[in-house]
Amino acid sequence: MRDGQPNPVTRLADYQPPAFLVPDTRLDVDLRDGETRVTAHLKLERNPARADRPDELVLDGDHLDLRSVVLDGRELAPGDDYRLEGPRLIIPGVPEAFSLTTEVRIEPEKNTALEGLYRSNGMYCTQCEAEGFRRITFFPDRPDVLSRFTTTIHADKGAYPLLLSNGNPVDAGDEADGRHFATWEDPFPKPCYLFALVAGDLACLADTFTTASGRDVALRLYAEHRDLDKLDHAMDSLKRSMAWDEKVFGREYDLDIFQIVAVSHFNMGAMENKGLNIFNTSCVLAHPATTTDAGFERVESVVAHEYFHNWSGNRVTCRDWFQLSLKEGFTVFRDQEFSSDMNSRAVVRVENVDFLVNHQFPEDQGPMAHPVRPAEYQKIDNFYTLTVYEKGAEIVRMQSQLLGAEDFRRATDLYFERFDGQAVTCDDFVACMEQVSGLDLAQFKRWYAQAGTPVLTVEDEYVDGEYRLTFEQHTPPTPGQPDKAPLMVPVKLALLDGEGRALPLDDQGRKETVVILREARETRAFPVPARPTPSLLRGFSAPVSLRYDFDERQLNTLLAHDSDGFCRWDAAQRLYFAALARVVDGGETPADQVARLTPVIEQVIARADEDPAQAALLLTLPTENAVGDRHTPLHPQRVHAAVSGLRATLGEALADAWWRLAEGLRESDYQGDGAAMGRRRLRQVALGYLAAAAGAGQVDPEPLVAHLSDTLAAPTCMTEELGALRALVHNRLPGHDAALKAFGERWKDEPLVMDQWFGVQATVPGADTVDRAEALLAHPAFEWTLPNRVRAVIATLVNANPSAFHAPDGSGYRLFARALKKLDGINPQIAARLANGGARLKRLEPGLAQQLGDALRDLRPGASANLAEVLDRILD
Ligand code: 0A1
Ligand code: ZN
Questions:
Q1: In this protein, which residues make up the domain named Peptidase M1 alanyl aminopeptidase Ig-like fold (predicted)?
Q2: By the number of CB atoms within 10 A of the CB, which of 141, 563, 842, 876 ranks highest?
């Protein structure tokens, strides 16, 4: 708690190398209910890189009960020989090199913050990134102190037969009183944020992977016994990731064993601890009966992401937390490329762009906007953001495009070779790109330093056989950054003729080019026979907001003919946004849009067979948040009426076509391949339109209810089952309550399915869902200490149900504030992350803004440092 004091700020400009290095760390962890003891034997030495030679050793600690400190074999006396200053241990007058042994007691059983060592469903596990290791023992808890770890764990053998840590197992045996121990040795020096430990009684799925150089690696996936049948997809994803990283990036795995442990209580998705990844169950367990197709895709990409960190993050790590995107942006790029190679590249690209544009852009345009490499933070936990991850990945992607595939590979090889075993910066990464390619990326690096979404405005004219495109870039001010300099913006483009064919752009007949912008305003000319339709920002070649005044004919041309998947999708989105804008502020009705949209939609449906997943994306209306972000001030109820009204109206107008899709794509048996997933996705979109029309009373609900009830009675998989439930419940169709009840009963013992059950209810559109959410919070299966459950109810209500969250009477805001307060006392990271849901405050119409501001202001006194940082940004 901050006691009214402002949080201390950490600044990149103040970076100093560590005063002491820790070449060797031996940990002895004695796990006992209520009295866990951690003994750390550290070898320390002065860091020659620190010229000012501080003679005080400062070690980080948090929630530690210090029992003894022994330096070079001599027990130190508190007060005289060392002191505790706040959470830190300070030992003055230390020698050049010495050994230090500390013993602390900790209480994992009481740790609901889920940082450091904690318990989840009867097992012990850890989460040390970013600064959790200091809750286990005193240590220089910063990523640029790399140490060789040997870890011995002692525990009761009956309750915790499995004892795991990083590296390779080197010793194990029984001890007195039914206890046992295991020792693990990690030969690779690592920062303490990559430390992990697990003790529990878990089931194991084992396999092996033979690396390119012929070494056998043991693969072990652990979960609770009842979940053993849900590990196959993760294992398969892991093996494919290992092979892919060898092939595409030349990266081979380095230890004899790679392990993943599934835990129910986890703040994030997963964690790349060296050789011992720890995963949120939601990102590793998958079974067709309990997991949707989206869930399967998520498991594949998160398993890959964490595995890829073994090189991008672990072998080469970050010098300081400002460089977080060095590992995260690069690793997201790598996992996106992996998913693209495993699935349809065009579909994955649109999914990634959709996510960026609809989630990261709002972050970059709101009070939390920060550069990919932030200059300062209060709590680093608050900077595990979409900007650092997703925009960071786009920055790596632009570099890969600027260099081309071959040079990019040479540059990453150089990066891994040059910096192996080191903690480095984003500049070091870019320097490798420059060295290999000879490009000057000095201006490009502004992408790391400048916050905000650049707006790229394009104007065109056709004069004397020449088509001229004028590009103007402008990055709006963001908190602390009023003025921005022009960025280097690669704009991939093509020009389409009246029939939608790409025109040759130069003498060599190339039909696509990349214009690299460097100035605030630039013009390029292309000699083409007639005024074309520009296909701009192909593949979403830069993370900018593109403004070009497309007319409807041009959008129809792009949607019908463009070979670029992103541009087709973007054209569809622009048509929908335009229609919705005419309803939200133009005084038109959803019915007025039908004549313009139905031919377009019919055309997409007619070609749906070519790629059902892509068709599903093209047929999906923008979310209410996306529409709301284009209207100032924000009137969430108006936006809701427009989007839901348009969906119902299109559902009615095209009912026959939706029925044909829904019936034609209905499967009799489950198939798990990508093509089947694409078909299910399209079927769900069709059912969504029909259900909206039925819910609005615009078509007879009876046949649809019968169809959905059939599906629920004998679903082929969870995608189908949950899709049917959602269609009934969100549209309040006859029988929705009974269906919910039956689903809840059927899946009451499957926590991840119950998360979905809670989530479906929390996203029922309409202000009355706030009351429903209150009831869900009182449900016996709701747990405040279980982040997945908290997210299922509260985060989905706040972030994915605008018509409820922004209930006109302010009840959604009051629930939000109460939940934040309660969570902040349990798990400040989760509270702070959830608080971001208030970031649209300043965009709201005044009445709502006042109510949300009042609710949040009350939370400021006594908020944790995590929550305070977010609240201050939102409210100031
Ligand atoms: N490095 C992990 C994400 C992660 C970050 C922080 C955590 O606790 C605060 C946990 C996990 C990743 O990128 O997957
Ligand atoms: Zn990561």
A1: 452-549
A2: 141
